[in-house]
């Protein structure tokens, strides 16, 4: 299915972008769940119009703003990768389904957890980020899931029914509901991957090591360059201009992923900026009036 705009991330930047695009009659799909960094904030005293409010209540107010908007479709599915296809984008979902959008806004926030050593080196060489996508490659083999969230539990249970042996490195919480066949490692901090042509060993900070045929890391978010191949970044942030445009035509970034300060006010404002410019871009594409120098203005 083709949408005018796909927004990845449902925090302040993503919700702001969705609202403003909806007002401009664009057909939108919004991916993501509530932002933990917002909902877990005890008190907010610097958001215009609210003198003293907790993050969960502010988030509820944000969501109410788009509830009645019929041209916003919501999805909790995880985006694996975004590919630029010229005048549109192809978004690959967790279940290998694909949707298309004329423009994309990345508003995923950032995960401040550091990569494991050699994680980048062994990406797609024994290290992956979607167990349900790649589990079939390890049928009858040994795999490790390093889990940081609820999704990792679901992925581990699914994968355990396909592979020969699954070990779950628990970085999430104590009361997890895993299949009895899954071996659990708790209280150990994963440090680095070891191997030659591909990763075959995970070493922990304690010195403990485990070997496997494949490793899956399930976090809340991943590096932007893994999400969007060829995106220009500065460390953990996507590089944007004053219009929140990236180096890829039709693709925008807003909120924490676009740089500091990590503030709700800034995120909501950038979501609006990205959305308004994206709506203008979409209209030009639809009317066949796109100018080659538009993206460089």
Automatic annotation (TrEMBL):
Keywords: Flavoprotein, Oxidoreductase. The keyword Flavoprotein applies. GO terms for molecular function: oxidoreductase activity. InterPro entries: FAD/NAD-bd_sf, FAD/NAD-binding_dom, Ferredoxin-NADP_redctase_2. Residues 3-271 form the FAD/NAD(P)-binding domain. This is Thioredoxin reductase.
């Amino acid at each position: 299915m083709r949408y005018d705009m796909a927004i990845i991330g449902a925090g302040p930047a993503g919700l702001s972008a969705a609202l403003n695009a909806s007002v401009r009659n664009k057909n939108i799909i919004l991916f993501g769940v509530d932002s933990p960094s917002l909902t877990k904030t005890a008190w907010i005293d610097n958001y215009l119009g609210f003198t003293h409010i907790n993050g969960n209540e502010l988030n509820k107010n944000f969501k109410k703003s788009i509830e009645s908007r019929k041209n916003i479709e919501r999805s909790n599915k995880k985006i694996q990768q975004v590919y630029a296809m010229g005048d549109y984008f192809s978004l690959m979902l967790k279940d290998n389904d694909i949707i298309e959008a004329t423009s994309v806004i990345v508003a995923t926030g950032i995960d401040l957890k550091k990569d494991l050593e050699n994680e980048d080196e062994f990406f797609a060489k024994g290290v992956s980020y979607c167990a349900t996508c790649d589990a079939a490659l390890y049928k009858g083999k040994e795999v490790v899931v390093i889990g940081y969230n609820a999704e990792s539990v679901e992925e581990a249970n699914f994968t355990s029914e396909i592979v020969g042996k699954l070990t779950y490195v628990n970085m999430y919480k104590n009361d997890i509901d895993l299949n009895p066949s899954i071996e659990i490692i708790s209280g150990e901090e994963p440090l680095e991957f070891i191997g030659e042509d591909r990763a075959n060993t995970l070493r922990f900070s304690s010195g403990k090591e485990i070997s496997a045929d494949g490793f899956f890391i399930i976090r809340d978010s991943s590096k932007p360059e893994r999400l969007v191949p060829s995106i220009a970044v500065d460390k953990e942030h996507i590089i944007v201009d004053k219009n929140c445009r990236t180096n890829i035509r039709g693709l925008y970034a807003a909120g924490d992923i676009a740089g500091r300060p990590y503030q709700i006010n800034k995120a909501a404002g950038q979501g609006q900026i990205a959305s308004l410019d994206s709506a203008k871009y979409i209209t030009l594409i639809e009317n066949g009036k796109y100018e080659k120098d538009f993206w460089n203005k």
